[in-house]
Design goal:
The complex is a heterodimer of chains A (about 325) and B (about 300). Chain A is mainly α. Helices cover about 65% and strands about 0% of the residues of chain A. Classes of the chains: A mainly alpha (about 325), B mainly alpha (about 300).
Chain lengths: ~325, ~300
């Protein structure tokens, strides 16, 4: 990515399509898993791994926290992110012992509480990240599945379309789209990112479907007379989706980063909307006298991106049978 | 090999047309009229506007404008800035050297550090070094480039005084090191992780066991057999990454005040200079396509399986 930062995640893309999991001796974990003798599915196997993984637990906890902040910012602070008091609070340094009070992380050059701003800025980032991922996931999976399953001219046409969108630099393309809008809300930004971002998912899905469709159970289903829709939905999709989910999870962090970059450049969310990228841009002007204005939104932003990346990494390792 | 090259070249044509058409539509479907904007607050003479539009070909239907643009491209004409009348290719050639130097330096850092760290981590998968490298690269990926930029600027330039906070002379390599470090940080992390995965996978391959069994030293088995096979996916990624580095230069050039392509396109975007934006983005798409083509050819040279597939 991007540019930034948005780019394909090569590592995740190397994850091979799901193979039916190797049966694990059940007697190792008598307390979990299905009945003895029945091999666990790939997902329950992965879940079994993940529950014991510190990086997964930490990232899941962080994501849960950020989702709560995004949904109910009022639980965390009473201060308004938009009220500034220039006479008293201009660039006031953080009071690091006053936990969760408006002055905890200091004030910015307009006398606004930084703590209140980073709490209220969470929602925009999370909403945009989730929306883009949802659109990209549906569109990319659909295109990738059709191209991979049908092959032939369908694949040729769809792959060229994917190549075309891939040829446009992600961040630059989003800037070109967004600059034409006078009011840029979260939905407009999400759409701009999704239009250029779906190709990564489509490629991963296509590769994954091509591997899965040669499997014996697909042949078996077809020879039993299953229709195309049934084969696609019941056999191909569940078995090909794992790498796509991993890539989508990692990409979510990338989309949040892209949104912040756009807002930082002044082409994303703008005042009165509260966004971390915009605050970082605002903080850069006072970086030498009051670095806290830049530092705290940056930490919040990076922690969010980190949480989603860590989660994606952990899930990928758990799903990849090769690493066992 | 010849057939492969021809096929790849032919595949490039629809992609180029599609991508430029998309950018063209994005830019010209915008509200706002660049010719009318030249008058600013002054009273507007409609006849003059019409004459100027006819002169620039802006009164033609959109498809005709695009066709003219494509024909111009074939003759190396990237369009003309409306306000100044300056050809866009001039803007590109005057901004390109700085960006090229910055990108080249960032690319060098990416290759050396990225591949180096990746090989070290891959050979010691699961060890302490590996986990540390994984963690550091994860940090590089999750901290956005503009944050890294300001952190480096404050730390290396203001606090330690090792570098200048902004680039005064883009021809001096020493001044470009700091921005290049910032620009390369994301790619470096990706390359390190990709190399690590690839090396760790190939380390367990049969040919590695054979190499050791026939008495090769560990060093030779790694440097000749393992590296050659592990670096194939890395080479692909590095190629695509050159395009990303050039686009990522928008942010880095802004922070360090480098007068390159990134600054030029950012300025053009904020003044809504459609012709300049389309021209520069088209140029970047061209660079991207040519680099991907070269990488695919290199890939075919490195891996005979691709050539005959």
């Amino acid at each position: 990515m991007p540019d930034v930062p948005m780019k394909a995640t090569p590592e995740a893309a190397t994850l091979k399509a799901t193979q039916p999991a190797v049966p694990v001796p059940v007697d190792e974990q008598p307390d979990s898993g299905p009945a003895p003798g029945k091999p666990r599915s790939l997902w329950s196997d992965a879940w079994h791994d993940l529950r014991r993984k510190p990086s997964f637990l930490i990232s899941a906890g962080l994501i849960l926290l950020f989702l709560t902040i995004a949904a109910f910012p009022g639980l965390f602070t009473d201060a308004s992110p938009r009220d500034g008091d220039l006479t008293q609070f201009y660039l006031q340094q953080p009071q690091l012992t006053h936990f969760f009070s408006p002055e905890w992380l200091g004030y910015d050059a307009q006398g606004r509480s930084i703590y209140a701003r980073i709490i209220h800025g969470t929602r925009a980032s999370i909403i945009i990240g989730l929306t883009v991922t949802a659109i990209v996931f549906v569109l990319g999976s659909l295109v990738g599945m059709l191209a991979g399953y049908f092959g032939g001219w369908v694949d040729t046409v769809l792959s060229r379309v994917v190549d075309t969108f891939m040829g446009i630099p992600f961040l630059l393309g989003a800037m070109v789209i967004l600059v034409s809008f006078d009011v840029r809300g979260p939905m407009v930004i999400s759409l701009a990112l999704a239009v250029l971002g779906w190709t990564t998912i489509a490629r991963v899905m296509r590769g994954s479907v091509i591997q899965v469709k040669q499997a014996d159970y697909v042949q078996a289903a077809r020879s039993l007379g299953a229709g195309t829709t049934r084969i696609l939905m019941r056999h191909i999709l569940p078995n090909a989706i794992a790498p796509v989910i991993v890539v989508a999870m990692i990409a979510l962090g990338g989309y949040i980063s892209a949104e912040a970059t756009l807002s930082y450049l002044g082409i994303g969310l703008a005042d009165p909307a509260v966004s971390w990228g915009g605050d970082i841009n605002f903080g850069k002007d006072s970086i030498r006298v009051a670095s806290h204005v830049l530092i705290f939104p940056s930490i919040m932003l990076s922690a969010t991106i980190l949480a989603f990346l860590m989660m994606g990494d952990a899930v990928r390792d758990a799903l990849d049978p090769k690493l066992r | 090999m010849g057939r492969y090259v021809v096929r790849r070249l032919l595949q490039m044509i629809p992609v180029f047309i599609g991508a430029t058409l998309l950018v063209f539509l994005m830019m010209y479907a915008l509200p706002g009229d660049p010719v009318r904007a030249l008058w600013g607050e002054r009273s507007v003479d409609e006849a003059q506007i019409a004459a100027m539009k006819a002169d620039l070909g802006l009164d033609l239907p959109l498809w005709h404008q695009y066709l003219n643009y494509l024909l111009g491209l074939l003759q190396g004409d990237f369009g003309t800035q409306i306000a100044s009348g300056r050809p866009v290719i001039d803007v590109i050639t005057s901004a390109l050297p700085a960006t090229l130097r910055l990108t080249a330096l960032a690319f060098l850092i990416t290759v050396v550090l990225g591949v180096g760290l990746g090989v070290i981590a891959g050979l010691r998968r699961g060890g302490k070094t590996d986990r540390m490298i994984l963690f550091v690269t994860l940090l590089f990926i999750s901290v956005p480039v503009f944050v890294i930029g300001y952190l480096y600027q404050v730390f290396f330039a203001h606090n330690l005084g090792w570098a200048r906070p902004t680039v005064q002379d883009p021809t001096a390599w020493s001044q470009l090191i700091l921005p290049a470090m910032v620009l390369s940080s994301l790619s470096l992390a990706y390359v390190a992780r990709l190399t690590r995965t690839s090396v760790a996978e190939n380390k367990r391959a049969d040919y590695m066991r054979t190499a050791r069994a026939k008495g090769l030293t560990g060093r030779r088995a790694v440097s000749v057999h393992l590296m050659r096979n592990s670096l194939i996916p890395v080479v692909t990624f590095l190629g695509v990454d050159i395009g990303n580095l050039m686009a990522g230069a928008i942010v880095t050039e802004g922070i360090f005040n480098v007068n390159g392509i990134g600054s030029a396109v950012y300025r053009a975007l904020s003044y809504r200079e459609g012709a300049t934006v389309v021209g520069i983005v088209t140029f970047m798409i061209l660079v991207y396509l040519v680099v991907t083509l070269l990488v695919d050819l290199l890939y075919a040279v490195l891996d005979p399986r691709i050539r005959y597939a």
